[in-house]
Design a protein that fits this description.
The structure is a homodimer. By secondary structure, chain A is α/β, with parallel strands linked by helices. In chain A, 45% of the residues lie in helices and 16% in strands. The first copy, chain A, has two domains: 101 residues, Rossmann fold, CATH 3.40.50; 147 residues, Rossmann fold (3-Layer(aba) Sandwich), CATH 3.40.50. In chain A, helix 5 runs antiparallel to helix 6. The two termini of chain A are 40 Å apart.
């Protein structure tokens, strides 16, 4: 039986609410004994939106043992005050940081509605779309003839995390990413193929524990040679020896998230990402 | 000539730094007259990492007119104190929120190192990978025979933003997404194809201004019929009439970001996303 205390949390944003929800999630990990029930109210830009949120929160408050927590990132003071006027206790990211920033920066904040995840400038947006298209067209060893234009080339055995990481790097950092799967023909040579050697500085290897790989492959093709522990162990051993022979940086993806893999790669390759996402 | 004031900002995190950088970006949009030069120090979990960051920040401080701003999200008090002891002024997300949260929740924060973008539980991770694989295999009208398993099916003309939005929804919310491109055969009928009608409730239309579409398509295939204003205008008109005939919700993607499109779709379809990213 789950006897964890339940705490309702609401996120009120005049934009997507993605930043504030992520901040909330980060803070909640500090309270592992509490289950947080979350609801986001995005695009709260008018009085009607705020009133709808307030009425919902009040209803939840009446039916729960604990007073709900409300996180806001509203730039408009009048909208924010609607919540304050309703006896709702608020954790506000603007009032927590903006006054001190204003004094540090010796200038006034604009209090204009959030543009954090707005489209901003079109060239940035097109760069992002280009990066995604590049990642999709250079997935899984496709289009090796243009792979030298990649900012990052991931390599590794099947199901070691190459595609999700490439997509994340493209989506979040506008980086052109490609990936090259290590297969039997590469294992025979114990080296990366000739076509990739010109791009040596962009290449990053992924490895994974045989147990984890076996689990992931089994989900996909149960009882196959492909998913067997022996095959997984053999491929990983070969892949790691290629990384060592070619002096490639590599990371074990067994127990890290896509975000952690991406951050590590950017740090190790000393890249300066362009995105603002 | 760009005469904007330049302000150096550093983000110090014991994890990826993604949350705190996103928070910083959100705050910086309130100061449009300042150019923020950002650098992230992720995975600051040991004294050595902190000292390296401090030494870099001090060097930048000596060479710049404005005192750098440092944002931290370090759970470990000793590490955080290293920064304080070095005359570096800190905006700390933990001390801004945790004490008040502790008093509201009537419990102590764990002060354990951040798990925000850690792999957390494996089932959540596998769900995310499944969602991404579903999105990739159901891109651009592929695998219509299993499209009914999608949580969301996006439709729209070529280059209206379907694929990036699908990938974003899968990556961030673990949602199984598919997309179906509207082409000539659909325009002849003025209705969605038979195969999609069973999934009516999951379908969301994307539209875009002819000018914006023409611009995007011209980047891809300059001087083609495909990229001409007339063709773009014709296709969009037809697509919108299909949405109206089929009573589909739809959104204009011309000047909104992928995040805003995704948030709007989740809100309009009343979905409860599973992810924690």
């Amino acid at each position: 039986m789950d006897s964890k205390k339940i705490q309702n949390v609401f996120f009120i944003s005049d934009s997507t609410g993605i930043t504030i929800e992520s901040l909330g999630h980060s803070l909640f990990t500090q309270f592992p004994d509490i289950t947080f029930e979350k609801k986001v109210f995005p695009f709260v830009t008018k009085k009607e939106n705020a009133e709808k949120a307030i009425s919902h929160i009040k209803k939840v408050a009446t039916n729960s043992q604990n007073t709900p927590i409300v996180f806001t990132s509203l730039a408009d003071e009048d909208l924010k005050n609607l919540f304050a006027a309703n006896d709702i206790s608020i954790f506000d990211i603007f009032s927590s940081f903006i006054p001190e920033m204003e004094s540090h920066l010796k200038t006034q904040a604009s209090h204009a509605i959030g543009e954090t995840h707005g489209v901003g400038n079109t060239s940035d947006y097109l760069q992002r779309i280009d990066a995604l298209n590049f990642a999709l067209s250079h997935d899984d060893g496709m289009k090796l003839d243009t792979i030298e234009h990649a900012d990052i080339i991931l390599t590794g055995v099947s199901r070691s995390g190459k595609t999700p990481t490439c997509l994340y790097l493209a989506m979040h950092y506008n980086l052109k990413t490609a990936n090259y799967p290590l297969t039997d023909s590469d294992f025979e040579n114990s080296y990366l193929p000739e076509t990739l050697r010109a791009s040596q500085d962009q290449i990053f290897g992924l490895t994974i524990s045989p147990t984890q790989l076996c689990k992931i492959r089994t989900e996909r093709k149960p009882n196959s040679k492909y998913a067997s522990f022996e095959q997984c162990e053999f491929e990983i051993k070969k892949a790691e020896s290629i990384y060592k022979n070619s002096k490639l940086p590599f990371i074990d993806t067994s127990s890290v998230s896509i975000e952690e893999i991406a951050t590590t790669i950017i740090q190790r390759l000393n890249l300066k990402p362009q995105g603002k996402w």
